[in-house]
Write a structure and sequence with these properties.
The complex is a heterodimer of chains A (146) and B (373). With 146 residues, chain A is of the alpha+beta class. Chain A contains four helices and five strands. Helix content of chain A is 29%, strand content 17%. In chain A, a hairpin with a 6-residue loop joins strand 2 and strand 3. The chains are: A alpha+beta (146), B alpha+beta (373). Bound molecules: iron/sulfur cluster (SF4) (2 copies).
Chain lengths: 146, 373
């Protein structure tokens, strides 16, 4: 009998203690943001999909069409082509496509590139209705970027 | 007038499907429950809904290309899975890892473990009908995710470890944020205790649910917090110190009762121990490189069998690799803790009330993609 009431009392008390915690939280600052009206800055180290970097000096990408990224990608998402052009040493990149549906952000391509031509972008709002929406033409992207 | 009612035993029995999308199974796990009224006669887990052939994929690509897959098996312990796999390849190829990289691996892994336990803490209580704790736990967990995102680039499925080190060094900002987080969480733990651990309803629901004995655990290969809740002080970080764990001072929390409440307390106390490890690792963090320079581009593993085990948040994770001498593994086998932990369900949950099955399965802290791989 005594144990019953002791338990009743300690139990009720534990609930009150718990409620004071939530009551305190009610008056503490809000920790959430109202996405999509409010957004949090993305860290510069965020790994989005890969992109060719625009070299500020030459105004174009730095890829030398060596194909190392294509060979090292564990998921075969990269496909690129290059051709010989008059008066240019080495090959010139003519096509660079990324199949983002298969990319696992492993970073193998970025790390293997001898000219540091690749980097992760910080787009995180990528959603689409078809799988083709995620087949990116990185060469076009780098040319279109200001 | 007397009517003879033929009482057929089987009339009262029925089969209830829990899952594949039941909220308390945290993923696509289906449990077939043979019921008699409120009581469960025979619970049978049905697996295979998220099988993605990870082990098979491992046999088709160069060994180091399997690294991103390890993170997808257990999305809550991704860094620890990364670390285990990197250690396996290093062991196989005989590569030394710089000390700074080992420390960074320990720091990030332990943060990962805290994050996993916090998510479990919130989600488990949510299963039991308490909505508030998950909000508080997520608030704290978010700090870890932000800190790790700043270094690893992703929030859950990290691919941070490399054969011979880690891909990016930690900076002062990371150290500062981690220290601030340790302070913060230490300050918040008493709040959790007040809110949840002392709560009479939580205790009543968890106490004496499940009966894990050391003998049962040994029979099914149960490891991790569940085994420690049964009173066995077995933690790979202590029992077989890998990486630099032998240099830190921490305890292995154990409980004796072997029920859901004991498992709950073990996990909860592990958070504090992980904080201790992170703090010591930050204090002792050596200078130097984070990546061994002499790692061959094409990683050929000498012929033979290799094994490496680490302590994941849910128990013992073990990689087993058979190499035929080429750079593509002949076979990769992953021993994941949740698979063995789940296999006790038919025995432990037999005869329970259905609400207790939820309590009991929540205490297992299942991650389904890790069971199915
Ligand atoms: S990040 Fe990895 S998976 Fe993605 S494109 Fe680069 S190499 Fe391929
Ligand atoms: S590794 Fe770099 S330079 Fe070589 S093809 Fe890929 S992007 Fe171009």
């Amino acid at each position: 009998m005594k144990a019953y009431f002791t338990e009743l009392f300690t139990g009720a008390w534990s609930l009150i203690v718990g409620l004071t915690v939530t009551l305190k939280a009610l008056f503490s600052p809000v920790v959430t943001v109202q996405y999509p009206r409010q957004k949090i800055d993305v860290t510069p180290n965020y790994r989005g999909h890969i992109d060719l970097i625009k070299d500020p000096e030459t105004g174009t990408h730095r890829c030398i069409t060596c194909g190392m990224c294509m060979r090292d990608c564990p998921s075969d998402c990269i496909y690129l082509e290059g051709e010989k052009q008059e008066g240019v040493k080495g090959k010139v990149l003519t096509l660079y496509t990324l199949d983002y549906t298969k990319c696992s952000h492993c970073g193998a391509c970025v790390e293997v590139c001898p000219t540091q031509a690749l980097d992760y972008c910080d787009d995180y709002e990528v959603a689409g209705f078809a799988r083709e929406d995620f087949h990116y033409d990185l060469l076009k992207r780098v040319e279109e970027r200001e | 007038m007397n009517v003879d009612v033929i009482e057929d035993e089987r009339q009262h029995q029925f089969v209830l499907n829990m899952g594949p999308q039941h909220p308390s199974t945290h993923g696509v796990l289906r449990v077939l429950l043979k019921m008699e009224g409120e009581y469960v006669l025979d619970p049978q887990p049905v697996l295979g809904y998220v099988h993605r052939c990870h082990e098979k994929i491992g046999e088709y690509k160069p060994a180091r290309a399997f690294m991103p897959n390890t993170a997808r098996m257990d999305y809550l312990g991704a860094l620890i899975y990364n670390q285990g796999y990197a250690m396996l390849l290093e062991r196989a190829a005989g590569i030394e890892v710089p000390r700074r990289a080992e420390y960074i691996r320990v720091i990030t892994s332990e943060l990962n473990r805290i994050q996993s336990h916090l998510l479990w803490y919130g989600a488990y209580l949510l299963d039991l009908g308490a909505f508030t704790p998950i909000m508080y736990a997520f608030d704290d967990r978010e700090h870890i995710l932000d800190t790790l995102e700043d270094i690893c680039g992703s929030r859950l499925t990290y691919c941070y470890c490399r054969v011979g080190g880690v891909c990016k060094d930690i900076d002062d900002k990371f150290i500062e944020r981690t220290r601030a987080f340790i302070e913060r969480l230490r300050g918040r733990l008493p709040m959790y205790e007040k809110l949840v651990n002392g709560n009479i309803i939580v205790q009543k629901r968890m106490k004496s649910v499940g009966n894990y004995t050391p003998e049962l655990c040994a029979r099914y290969g149960v490891t991790g917090p569940l085994l420690r809740a049964a009173g066995v002080e077995y933690d790979l970080r202590k029992a077989e110190p890998y990486s630099v764990y032998s240099e830190f001072d921490f305890e292995v929390p154990t409980e004796q009762q072997g029920d859901a409440w004991a498992a709950f307390n073990v996990r909860y106390r592990e958070i504090e121990q992980s904080l201790r490890i992170v703090e010591q690792a930050l204090d002792k963090l050596p200078e130097g490189e984070v990546m061994e320079a002499k790692v061959p581009k094409k990683l050929r593993l000498p012929q033979g069998d290799y094994n490496c085990s680490v302590e994941a948040p849910r128990g013992e994770l073990s990689y087993y690799l058979v190499s035929d001498g080429s750079d593509i593994p002949y076979r990769i086998k992953v021993r994941t803790p949740s698979y063995s932990n789940l296999s006790v369900v038919p025995e432990v949950c037999k005869g329970m009330m259905i609400a207790d099955v939820v309590t009991s399965m929540g205490a297992l802290d299942l991650v389904i993609p890790e069971i199915d791989r």
